[in-house]
Amino acid sequence: MPPRRSRRTNRVSSEFGLIRLLRAQVAGPGRDVFKGIGDDTAILKTSASQWTLITTDLLAEGIHFDPALSSFEDIGYRAAIANLSDIAAMGGAPRFMLVAIAIPRTCSMGQIQQLYRGLMQAANPYHVSLVGGDTSASQDGLFLNITLTGIVKPRQALLRSGARVGDLLYVTGTLGDSHAGLNLLRKGHQPGRAVMKSSQVRWLVARHHRPSARVAEAQWLVRHRLATSAIDVSDGLSGDLRHLCEESKVGAEIMIASLPLSPACRAYAAAHHLDPQRIALQGGEDYELLFTVPSTQHSRFERLAASTTFRFTCIGSITSKPAGLRMRRDVGGSQPLPITSYEHFRSPSL
To answer: Would you say residue 236 lies in a domain?
Structure first.
């Protein structure tokens, strides 16, 4: 479906409608392209022993970050994690990074150095090399674009298109923490009936400023051949689940009570009279992995997972495409899953 456009302004109003339109207009993958548009990264068949993953992300001041709320080190760190998480979602190992930056007059040399320091703090644990990029002046805010490559063994990458009916849905870590942390930065802590501990506030803010890329978890899944599909939770669980299901041509049902929530996120929700499960569905930039495991591998998965320090939570299952996306609460039947995740060009729901 083409993106919706206003009759008066002719503005794009649907990010993913625009992507579908562009995807339909470009030529199909060439002989050396295993996967093009439609996944967390492209996959290039560069050799018989390993394939190349490549991804890019553009971050714009006022859209993706606010220097009034984050240090330049934190901005750089989160920018690198966004790309590292894409490589993780494919089950790959990150390798080389290029950075293009457009700098406004309001930025100092010291601030730009801090931003690059944050970038490398995120990249260094994965032995990623910064190998180039570009610089430009900007007349309207700071713009940062990162391109990251990675490697994966041929035909072992985790794709969004591999989920099958009956597979179980899992996520790593906890959901909604980054969203709660960002709201605390924007609005401060305004307690109602419940009061948050200062340690909980700091923890949520840290989860926003310094998220984790689940590279080790994804490589573990690939090594044991346990997952049929995967995507990283960057826009929010409900929206990213939709992307996975669209590419796999399936539906899904999630158990709301099973969504993993941190004690700090629950405390934030209680203090601000919010539904913690809705925060988990909506909140983006947690960079957790959402993946599927065949029901026939469930016992083996749980047994192997028990020997790791990773946190995996089963939150539902894959259903047929006609069933759509649904959620089930402890009482009552299932109902349609609202898509409340972030999407560019669309007004936020909350």
So the answer is: yes
